[in-house]
Amino acid sequence: MLLAFWFCLFFVAYVYILYPLALYLLSKPKITIAPTVKYKGDITIVMVVCNEDTSVARKINNLQELKFNGGDIKIIVVDDASDDATVDVLSEFTGVTVITSKARSGKASGLNLAMKEVDTELVMLVDCRQRLELDVLVHLTSWFVGNPKMGAVSGELMFETQGGNDFSSGMDGYWRYEKFIRKSEAAIASVPGVTGALYMLRASLFEEVPSNTLLDDVQIPMVVSNKGYRVGFDERAVAWDTPSVCAAKERSRKIRTLSGNYQLLFRFPEWIVPTGHPIWWQFFSHKIARLLAPLFALASFLLATIMFFQGSVWAGYYLAAFTAGLLIAPLSMRFNFLNKIPLTKFLTSFILLNWFCVLALVKYFSVSSSGAWKR
Q1: What pLDDT is recorded for position 337?
Q2: How would you list the strands of the sheet with 96-100, edge to edge?
């Protein structure tokens, strides 16, 4: 029992401390110099929308203002059966190809429709909500010049601080932790997923994704890297988003994302074994092991409880520390002054995100997975 307890603790420590540390040590000697060469070909930008009449005009204006020294920029927008004025707003723009879907079928199906119309070497995939820095095309395309083995490059998602609160500040801190991991993974091999709000893809590598796919921004790059191509990360190419300002909103987003990781695990189980994928270690450690970490933490609590009733004093100390840690999240929501402490904000986000992992597991097995839009 003691051995099982320590194994559970080791697993949790591996996921959140040892794996990032290993990445740091492996990536430290590797100096990645971001390219500055200019891509001269045409570019296609693809976006799938659903009921975005209040934001799609702002996004199209943003896309049409992007800087690019190459050829033409083509914009393809797939409307997934919106029942608001999204299509009417899109019709006011010139130079935008709009594909309308008669029945709502989700983002993955929209991507499949759009990619059939792409005739350029490179395609940039974006979401509607985020604002892009104007130089994203210049930076992302530069990785493909003279590099035929570059398959995809992810941009960086950053959060606007204006209008945020203490909870959103904590989420921003957790995202910086994520950024470090992605940057290190890209330095040593490839990232097991991209920022869905902004990434560049070699169009010929795209394979149709099932319509119920929840995480197209993980499945598509994982398929690309499985073909022997590299998936990179460019922190110069920035998409600006607003962080969740409450746990309820973040819960909805995160549970869907984590459910998508479960979906990929059961869809591609071979990806987590050494011979099953070129970056199996990164995929398992970053995407799958995180799903299991809260379960191992819970197992350590149960094992400590048994050992405590068997007379183990140190197990009692562990139970007290574990319980105190769990109470940080509800206490910080009840007593706002706790949110003024940076460590408390980060720990609250950390605990909530692990709780969302458990909820995602329950949801995945209790509700059929669907690629339909969730608001």
Answers
A1: 60
A2: 96-100, 73-79, 43-49, 122-126, 198-202, 150-159, 230-241, 131-132
Residue 368's pLDDT is: 52
Distances (CA, A) of 170 to 176, 203, 244, 301: 10, 36, 10, 26
Assess contact for 182 and 210: CB atoms under 8 A: no
CB atoms within 10 A of CB 38: 12
Alpha helices in the chain (DSSP H): 2-13, 19-27, 56-64, 86-91, 107-115, 136-142, 166-188, 216-226, 247-267, 280-282, 289-309, 313-334, 342-366
Q: Distance (Å, rounded) from C-alpha 220 to C-alpha 226?
A: 10
Separation of alpha carbons 147 and 269, rounded Å: 30
- Count of all residues that appear for the chain in the document: 375
- Closest of 291, 294, 285 to residue 351, by C-alpha: 294
Question: Quick check: helix, strand or coil at residue 265?
Answer: helix
269, 272, 270: which is closest to 280 by C-alpha? Answer: 272
Q: Are 72 and 42 in contact (CB under 8 A)?
A: yes
Secondary element (H or E) of residue 46: strand 43-49
Find where tokens 């050494």 sit.
Answer: 274
Ranges 97-111, 128-142, 236-250, 252-266: which has the least confidence? 236-250
The pLDDT score that the predictor gives to residue 102 is 87
> How far apart are the C-alpha atoms of 268 and 248, rounded to whole Å?
30
Residues 95 and 226: their CA atoms lie apart, in Å, by 35
Non-local (6+) Cβ contacts of 338 within 8 A are: 328, 331, 332, 344
CA–CA distance, 285 with 344 (Å, rounded to integer): 25
Is it the case that residue 247 has pLDDT exceeding 60?
no
pLDDT tens digits for range 12-71 = 999 999 999 999 999 988 877 889 999 999 999 999 999 999 999 999 999 999 999 899
| 121 Cβ neighbours under 8 A, 6+ residues apart | 41, 42, 144, 202, 203, 204
Q: What percent of the chain has pLDDT over 70?
A: 87
Contacts of 315 (CB under 8 A, 6+ apart): 304, 305, 307, 308
